[in-house]
Amino acid sequence: MTKFVERVFSGVQPTGNLHLGNYLGAIQRFVEMQKSHQCIYCVVDQHAITLWQDPKSLASAIREVTAAFLAAGIDPKAHIVFNQSQVAEHAELAWVFNCVARMGWLNRMTQFKEKAGKDKEAASVGLFAYPTLMAADILVYRATHVPVGEDQKQHLELARDIAAKFNNDFGDSIAANGFNGGFFPLPEPLIQGAATRVMSLRDGSKKMSKSDPSDLSRINMTDDADTIAAKIRKARTDPEPLPGEEEGLKGRPEADNLVSIFAALSGRTVAEVLAEFGGGQFSTFKTALADLTVAKISPITAEMKRLMADPGHIDAVLAEGSGRARAIAAPIMASVKDIVGFIRAK
What we know:
The chain is mainly α. 53% of the residues lie in helices and 6% in strands. It contains 14 helices and 5 strands. A 3-stranded parallel beta sheet has the order 1-2-3. A two-stranded parallel ribbon has the order 4-5. It starts with 7 loop residues before the first strand and ends in a 6-residue tail after the last helix.
C-alpha cells in the first residue's frame, strides 16, 4: 500500500472584507495546526473569479488574506503560504478531475444551488465545476488532511470520491508506474473546536457573511476596538438569561452563536463558558465577549494594516511560497500525466 506523507492543505478565498467567521472558521485553526502538521495554506484566487471580481480589488484582497495569515501567526518559512494562480498544476489537475467526476455528483452540490440562486443558466461554468478545482487543490499535493467548516464537508466528500474513482479507473496504469495501493490518498476532514460555523450577529440562522447588507451582522478584521465593542453590544439576543448547560442553547441560535464565539476565542469549551456565565444576563456576557474579541482581534488588525502598507513584502512571501508549492505539485502532476497516458518531455 502507498504510504502518504501526512500533509494539511487548506485555502481561503480572497473576496474582500475578511471577518470574524473567516478567522475563527479557518485562520485561527491554521495557526494551531502548524504546531503539529506539515501545512500548505493557499489564497485560492482562482476560486474567487467564479463570480466576477474587479481586478484591482482582487489583487488587494489576495494581499489582505495573505496579511491575515501572517498577522495571525502563520509562519511562511516553516510552512507554505502562496496564491493558487501561481501554481499552474492546480488548473491542470482540475481538468483531469473534470473528466473523472460525474455530472450527477456536481449536480448534488448544495453550495452551487445556493450561490447560483434561481437563475442557474446565468451562472458561470466555473461556479458549477469549482468543486473539482477544490479537489485538485488538495490532491495535487496528495494532502491527507483538510481543515473544513461544516459547509465544506460535502466538497471534501467529493474530493474523496474523485480520488477513489481515479485510483480505480487507472488502477493498472498506477501500478505500472510504480505506485501500489492507489495514487491519491482519500483526504480526511479536520473539524475542531467551537464556532466551526460563525453566524450573523443579527440573525443566528444565517452564516456571517461579507455580502450581508448590514455591517452590524459581522465583525470585520479591519474594525477598530470601538466598532467591535459596539457591534457586540448591538448583537441580537433573546430575553432569557444564559443557560447553565449546553442543552439550554437549543432553539436559541443567537445565544448559541455568541457563546460559541466566546469559546472559540478563549480556547475553552461551550460548557466551560456556560459554567461561568450561565444564569447571568446578556449585558454582562456581552461586555466580557467584547473585551475578549478586542483583545484577540485588535493586534491582528494592527499587524494586517502594517503588512498591507508594504505590498512588496507580501508579494515576495507569495512568490517564495509558490515556488515551494510548485516543487511538490510538479512531480505529482507529472506522474498523473504518465498514469493517464499523456506524452511529456522527460
